[in-house]
Structure formats: C-alpha cells, structure tokens
Amino acid sequence: MTATLSGSDVPLAAAHDLALVDLDGVAYQGHLPIPHAADSLTAARTAGLRLVFVTNNASREPEEVAGQLTGLGIPTGADEVMTAAQACAALLRTRLDPGAGVLVVGGPGLRTAVADAGLTVVDSADDAPEAVAQGYAAGLGWSDLAEAAYAVAGGAWHVASNLDLSLPTARGFAPGNGALVGAVVAATGVEPDSAGKPSPTMYRLAVDRAGAERPLVIGDRLDTDLAGARAGGYPGLHVLTGVSSARDAVLAAPGLRPDYLGGDLRALLEPHPRPESGPEGWWTCEGRAARVVDGALELDGQGPRGIDVARAACAAAWDAADGGSPVDPTTVPELQA
C-alpha cells in the first residue's frame, strides 16, 4: 500500500481514458446538484475523458439514472450507467444456469437486471428459488424481508446488491440496503455475498465494457468507492463533497486510501502535486507541511490552497501509521479544502 498520495503533472482528465463516477455525493446530492459537478464533467468530456456512472443503488433502471443526470446538466445515456443491480445479476450468473429461479427483493432496476441476465424472477419462497437477490427499494416491508428469510433458510443463495448501512437523502442519512439485509441475516444466520462496492465487480464490468486502459475511480466514500478501487487495483480520486471528509482520509486504513484528493470535481481538471518527504519528518505539498511527532499531527505552512495541507497531512499520517506509529485521532482537526 502507498504511504503517500500519487501525483500527476497533467490534469487527471488527460491522464486517464475513463472515469468511473459515483453518483450520490459526487455528481449530485439527493435530488440537488453539487456545485461545479456538471461543468467539471462537461469539461472533462471535452478533454477526451469518457464517463461511466457507477452506483450502489439497485432500485432504479439505468434509463432513470441517466435521465436524472441529464436533467442536472450532465447529459448521459443509459449505456453510461452501471448499477449494483447489473453487478448483482452478473454475480448470480457465475453460479446459476440460465432460467434458474431467483427471488428478487428490491426495486424495478433489480428485477430488470436479473431478467436480462437470463434468470427467472419469482415472487415467493414457495417457488423454490435457487437464489435471493436483495436490493434497496423504498417500498420494501416486513413481508418482503420475511419471504427472503424463508428462501434463504431453505437453502437459497443470498446475494445483496450492496451492504451500505446508510443511504444519503435530501433530509439526511436513512437506513440503506445493508440495514435491510441485516434483518434477513438476523433471521437466518446466513451471511450474504455482495455485488456492490466495495466489491470491485461493477468497476471491472464497466472497464471491460468500455475497453478502457487507464480508468480512474471517483468517489466520496472511503469505505465503498475507494475501498472498491483499492480492491480492484484502480487509482481513486476522493472528492470532499459527500460522506467522507479530508480528516477521514488522513486517518484511513491502507485498504481505504485514495490515490488523489480533491475538494470537488474540479480536481479532474487540475494537475495533482505529490507530497514530498523532507527533513525532520515533514511532508510538504505546495507550501503546506505536516508531520507526526510522538503520535501527534502537526501542521505548518502557508500554501495557496487548503487541499494541499490535507494532502500533506495524509502523507504524514500514512507514513507514520505504516511505520508502526499511528497518529492519535484527537490531534487531527477537520481540514477544509
């Protein structure tokens, strides 16, 4: 694992041929636009960067997702969307023959994806399904979860579209698919397989479909988006417009660390300076500096951008942690980009 961030002398939009872009917290927030997202993605496309929007949401059809993005000023086709429902169906096909029965507990997007994969959608555990595909849908109730539990207890393979415990909405965070899956696990004692992030399945499907050679993952959550990038061996850009903060990045375990750090999607259009190690344990980035002394993070410098102190802090904290002397979290402040 890297002990510092990567660097790029050219804008990331020029260094990569495909961006795998998360939705909530990156392209939009709930039903609201995120500042600079549409303009930055449009400029990146103009520079030659292809986009695929990759989401753990399995309830909606790709056409619906594409329509929302287009309405927010990000023109998108359905073929530029990769959902956890599609990844879930692909995972099911690794073990199930065409026509196998699958109890789908989720929204229309998951039902369509399972059917399109050549599997038979059933609605009851009494149909003896070979698998249960479970994804989030706002209308799911006790009877749906009970039906899933009956099937799993009867030997059906349990596959979740994702295991996100929370779901960002315009009013805050609500229970996500992982919370609903947890109810089935509590009833059956059977742990499911998962197709969504942090599994790299969706990333690999999108990269293969696009024939990309230099993909870049863009996300706001270290534990899903960036963990999936690490698991798949793809470089990842962490933008600070969603769930995980710059402080979270500083304290990130090796498997969750991004390769690049940016305040928002304008980071696609900029070079990324690489933090450099210097005397007395200081790590510097564009005039900002950080080091860890006796477990305490120290910050210094007067560089032009707040993001550079966060980059220097990541390098210092990761180097210390990988050397066996992790930083004390109480000494790490919230870092504004």
UniProtKB/TrEMBL annotation:
InterPro entries: GNAT-like, HAD-like_sf, HAD-SF_hydro_IIA, HAD_sf. GO terms for cellular component: cytoplasm. Pfam families: GNAT_like, Hydrolase_6, Hydrolase_like. GO terms for molecular function: phosphatase activity. Transmembrane segments: none annotated. Gene3D superfamilies: HAD superfamily/HAD-like (3.40.50.1000). Signal peptide: none annotated. Residues 285-329 form the GCN5-related N-acetyltransferase-like domain. PANTHER family: 4-NITROPHENYLPHOSPHATASE-RELATED, D-GLYCEROL 3-PHOSPHATE PHOSPHATASE. This is Haloacid Dehalogenase Superfamily Class (Subfamily) IIA/haloacid dehalogenase superfamily, subfamily IA, variant 1 with third motif having Dx(3-4)D or Dx(3-4)E. It comes from Krasilnikoviella flava.
